[in-house]
Amino acid sequence: VINYTIKPIIFGGIACIITKVPSIAFFAGVSKSLSELASKNNTLSKIILNCIRKILKYNSKAIFLNESDISFMKSNKLLEYDKIEIFDGGEGVDIDRYAPCKELVEHSYFKVVMVSRVLKTKGFHEFVQAAKFSKDAGLDIQYFLAGGIDEIHPDRISRQEIEQAQKNEYFHYMGHLKNLPEFLKDADCVVLPSYYNEGMNRSLMEALSMGIPIVTTDNRGCKELVLDGKTGFIIPSRNAEALFDAILKLYHLDKENMNRMRENSRKYAIKRFDVKNVIQSYIQILDNVLNYNKMYAK
User: Fold this and answer.
1) Residue 8 falls within a domain, yes or no?
2) The domain spanning residue 284 has which CATH number?
3) What is the three-class DSSP state of 66?
4) Which distant-in-sequence residues (6+ apart) come within 8 Å of 224 by Cβ?
5) Has residue 213 been placed in a domain?
6) Are residues 253 and 263 in the same domain?
7) What pLDDT shows up at residue 297?
8) Total of domains in the chain
9) Tally of CB atoms within 10 A around 105
10) Is there a single domain that holds both residue 40 and residue 78?
11) Is 227 exposed, middle or buried (0-12, 13-18, 19+ CB in 10 A)?
12) Residue 170: predicted pLDDT
């Protein structure tokens, strides 16, 4: 069994221990709750962390998407070193589906897109503020936000706040899109000013695969995706001015340099994020785990 994300890792892990089924833990990112638990120095937190250690010890392997999450697990002694695997290419991208548009659509404005759940920690307020800077400066830059509203997340943004920002003409809210590649095909850049506990952000990988430069933060699961200055820009988190400045850099690029950045993005995505390579990594890990368990059973 591959238990994916922290709640299945814990509860699915218990089920695997009881039924003696081999298991693999997949951390798509260290959750906020686990980070907060590790930061508390009380008896209850220590007991819970010790239970998590025992559950994780049963796993044959634990897969991570970035080095920061691995460092967190090591520093809190939650995992044995020899069980850790990292997917350098994240969860992968279908590079055929997320391919550059053969003929770029010409439009009169510079199109900036953020693809994300609408959460405070994903950088919603920084995105809105950068859009406000553009409007106040009278620039022909249009901002679009695509992603669902999370009604129960503690960092949720209310529908009223989204509607008010739209009334102020800061950005266009697109909601959840079923055909994202079609919408992204004429984007000039994709941004994600996140300070969320990312594993390795999929929307940024998809943008790169389509040959779209990205702007994101020095946050875990974001900074690892950018060749700074070649496929996009890395900015400090919680900094709307830095986001706006990075967008301006792309906005002022001449056609030749923008095309070069687009080509760099696509080549980088093919080399690193092709989902076919990720599938092979899964198969190799599963083969190793199953073969080990067969030997152990004998």
Assistant:
1) yes
2) 3.40.50
3) coil
4) 66, 67, 200
5) yes
6) yes
7) 57
8) 2
9) 9
10) yes
11) middle
12) 93
